[in-house]
Specification:
By secondary structure, this protein is α/β, with parallel strands linked by helices. The chain is built from ten helices and twelve strands. It has a five-stranded mixed beta sheet. A five-stranded mixed beta sheet has the order 9-8-10-7-11, covered by helices on one side. A two-stranded antiparallel ribbon has the order 1-2. The two termini are 49 Å apart.
Amino acid sequence: MNLRDLPLNALRVFVIVAQEDGVAAAADRLHVTHGAISKQIHLLQQTLNISLFRKSGRRLVLTEAGKELADGAGQVFSDMNRLVNRLSRQQEGAKFVVSVVPSFAARWLVPRLESWYAAQNFEIYINATMSVCNLRAGEVDVAVRYGSGQWPGLHAELLLSPEYIPVCAPSLAKVPLSDPGLMKNLRLIHDNSREAWTRWFRLAGLGEASLAGPVYDDFNVVLQAVLSGQGVGLANKRFVQAELNEGRLVQLTPQSLTEAAFYFVCLPERLDEREIQTFRRWLFAEMSSQEPSIRL
C-alpha cells in the first residue's frame, strides 16, 4: 500500500493502546471515549487488512503482527517526538535539562556546579523534583533517580549507595550513646513517612518503638529541624558530612541503614549523545573523587 494512505492518527492510537495494554486505559490517556478508540483501531486494521488483536478471555491481546507493528511504530513516534522537542528547545535556546530529587540537588549536585561551569561549554537546567519525569516525552535529557535501578526501557547506572545514620545537634544528646535503646527517648524527625525509622530500629535490634514526631516531605526541611535541635533525623551520611566535620551535627550510634540508591538515568538510545556523555563523565568523576569504587 502507499504510505500516503496510512491513517497516521489511527496508527498513533493503536500504539497507545499497545503501550497502555488496553482500550480503556488508552481512552483515559487520550481523553476520548472507548468507542472513539475502537473506531480508530477498526480503521487501521481495515486499511492494513491485518488482524492486530485477538481475544483472550475478556481481554484483547496483540497478535504477532500487532506486536511487530506496535514496536516499530512506537519507536518511530518516540524518535519523532524527541526530534521535535529537541529542535523546538534549540530554537528557544533551551538548556540541557537534568531532573533530580531535591536532596541530591541541594546537598550534592549544586555545590559542585562551579567545576562544571569552569570546564564545560553548555548550560544545564536543574529540575529539582520528587516527581518521576517521563524521559521519553523529550522534556528532560537525563535524571538522577532514587530507587532500585530497575526501570524498564531506561539506561540506569549506580551513582551513590546512601548510608543513613541517626544525627542530631550536639546540644541534644551526648555521643556516642552508651545504649542504642536510648534512641527511643528522643524525638524523631521523619522524612516523608515513618517507615525509614521503623526499619532502622528493627535493623538495630531494638524492635518496635514510638515513632511520634514531625513528618516533613523534604529532606532539606528535616535537616534544618535537626540542626536547630528539634530532634533526631536519619540522614544520608554523604549529604551531611560537612556538618559532621564542623561539629554542627553528631552521629548518635554506629548503626546505619542502607536501602535504595541514586542512579544516573537516560534513554539507552541517547547514551552516546555528546552532551549526555559530557555530563555523565563529569558526574561520575565528581562522585569517584570521593567514592573510588565508582567506575566511569
